[in-house]
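hiii so my PI (J.) wants the whole complex modelled not just the main chain, which honestly fair. so below is everything: two entries, each one labled with what it is. i double checked the lines twice but i was tired so who knows lol
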Amino acid sequence: MANTACFMIVARNDIPIYEAEVGSAAKREDAAQLHQFILHAALDVVQDLAWTTSAMFLKSVDRFNDLVVSVYVTAGHTRLMLLHDSRNEDGIKSFFQEVHELYIKILLNPLYLPGSRITSTHFDTKVRALARKYL
Amino acid sequence: MAPVGPRSGDAIFSSIDRVNAELFTLTYGAIVRQLLTDLEDVDEVNKQLDQMGYNIGIRLIDEFLAKSGVSRCVDFKETAEMIAKVGFKMFLGVTASVSSWDADGTCCSIILEDNPLVDFVELPDTCQGLYYCNVLSGVIRGALEMVSMKTEVTWTRDALRGDDAYELQVKLLKQVAEEYPYKDDE
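here's the output for the full assembly
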């Protein structure tokens, strides 16, 4: 399991709809803001990269000190972004693929409005379990 | 007269036209979603779904009787079995079970283990009072009313609210005698 990791889902209109700190490291007080800031900065890179490849998994697109940003872009241009410090590309890829499946389930829920915040606790527990498994 | 109709709806289910399950689920979801947006009140949506179900039910009963070939049921027990085993199988592709009869045989529970209407659905906090499948209770109420049984149908268990199955309580209020609907001078 990674020491630091922050997972975020960003909707196509650049609004974060889900956020989870999944690292095992003791939290710094400003960690959440710092992580948001780094991920936000990486969005521009993702924008450029997303159209140069047909793959959904963009691998690591940006780095900040020892933290790396890996991104997975779904067909609807929803971005699954992971900030991490481990170098386990296969694990991250599997993590993204499984979260994508979960995200599709959420999206198929007629009572969920696309682009709105994901409040499902079921989704949250599943994502955290996947993070423990793969990262 | 003993009924001569089928004991299960499998044969009819395999012979009638079907639609893709996801299309069906999402279409129903879209209806509920739209009602929630339009009426902005969960209780109103429940009422509206029930009314829609009623309107479906009063038409569906004819289709049911024509295609299934069942004849008159001798008592309410048989009616409930018929709904659960043949009706649900015919139109939803699932089989329900009937239980919890009261002493008079006028009140029972229809239990659905599997419900195709609710695939993918998770109730958000804003819709906690919603009976998502309320259309089903309306269908049963409407259909039974057309065969001269006034019933009251309520949800007693709903898996979307954390229970382990879907349970509809069907209560027979009274049997209406069939009567000639027109007066002579009209």
